[in-house]
Amino acid sequence: MKNLKNIGLALLMMLSLVSCKQENKEVVAEEVKKEAVSEADLAKMQTASFTIDGMTCAMGCAKTIENKLAAQEGVGQAVVDFDTKIATVKFDAEKQSLESLTKTIEAVAGGDSYKVTESKKM
């Protein structure tokens, strides 16, 4: 019985690690190079924060969401803090909105993993 518990625990840990690695591969494959945004341009952009449920790891989940947001047209900066479950995004309001950024977050990993529970402009 003890061996069965150990095997189950080992399988659960491997599954957790594999899921993060798979998402990490997506990030590398879909990474888009963007021109650097100047400090002046960032200062003109609006800032919003999004509370995200469903993240299970910093390197796979949070980094994947951060890269997807940063790759969007009109996004100057995106930072996802895994510990607080909050994404902070600086964006051009003429090209993006809270709704479009929410859809981007919720569409990551096939649309089944992440849910924005709160969004607000700062």
From TrEMBL:
**Is Signal given among the entry's keywords?**
yes
Asked whether the keyword Signal is assigned, the reply is: yes
Keywords, comma-separated and alphabetical: Signal
Q: Where is the HMA domain?
A: 46-113
Superkingdom assignment? Bacteria
Q: Which InterPro entries match?
A: HMA_dom, HMA_dom_sf
Q: Which residues form the signal peptide?
A: 1-21
Q: What's the protein called, per UniProt?
A: Cation transporter
